[in-house]
Amino acid sequence: PGVFSDVVLSAGNDNIVVSASVPGPTLSGLRTASASPFTHSSPFRADFLISGVNLVSVAMGDYNADEDNLFVQAFNSSNVLLSSVGYVLSGGTYGGPTLTVTGPDIAYVVFGSTGLYANSVYFDNFTYEVATSVPEPATLLLLGLGLLGLAGIRRKK
User: Fold this and answer.
1) Phi, psi of 21 (to 5 degrees)
2) CA 124/CA 87 separation, integer angstroms
3) Which helix (H) or strand (E) holds 24?
């Protein structure tokens, strides 16, 4: 598995390897990742070590060898499916799309492909966003009333 400060990447019993092979757009960086020894037994999984993740994007693709039914699924910590997206990557495609899922407090995502050679895709540009807290209107109202009260007390003196 690949362990980073906020996320752990895995692919069942396979290792995740980074290589210089890049199938094409949008996998256009200097490196891509895949499972090794490429048994195709499990999809990729990313477990977040932080809370508040609300958006995950990943680019997936192939070397135009076969049709791949790409998917990304987001789950919460109770294993409830929050969001999923799919894309049919035709056999003549060199590269692949970026797929995005959203949901409140995503605990982990599962991504890969189904079809003849399940999970035989590369991935790149794995990104995620963490929700920022926005004050509720009631909280702002209470703060405003408190400030008005302080201003009134000061004025009376």
Assistant:
1) -80, 130
2) 16
3) none
Residue 2, pLDDT score: 55
pTM score: 0.78
Q: Mean pLDDT across the stretch 3-12?
A: 84
On whether the CB atoms of residues 89 and 70 are closer than 8 A, the answer is yes
**Tokens (6 digits) for 86:** 């799919």
114 within 8 A of 71, measured Cβ to Cβ: yes
Neighbouring C-alpha atoms within 13 Å toward the C-beta of 67: 6
CA nearest 108: which of 41, 49, 40?
Answer: 49
Mean pLDDT of the chain: 84
Longest dimension (CA), the chain: 81
Least confident range from 12-16, 85-89, 130-134, 153-157: namely 153-157
Of 86, 96, 121, 101, which Cα lies nearest the Cα of 48? Answer: 101
Which residues lie below 8 Å from residue 112, measured CB to CB, with a gap of 6+? 42, 43, 44, 60, 70, 71, 118, 119, 121
The token duo for 3 is 């362990």
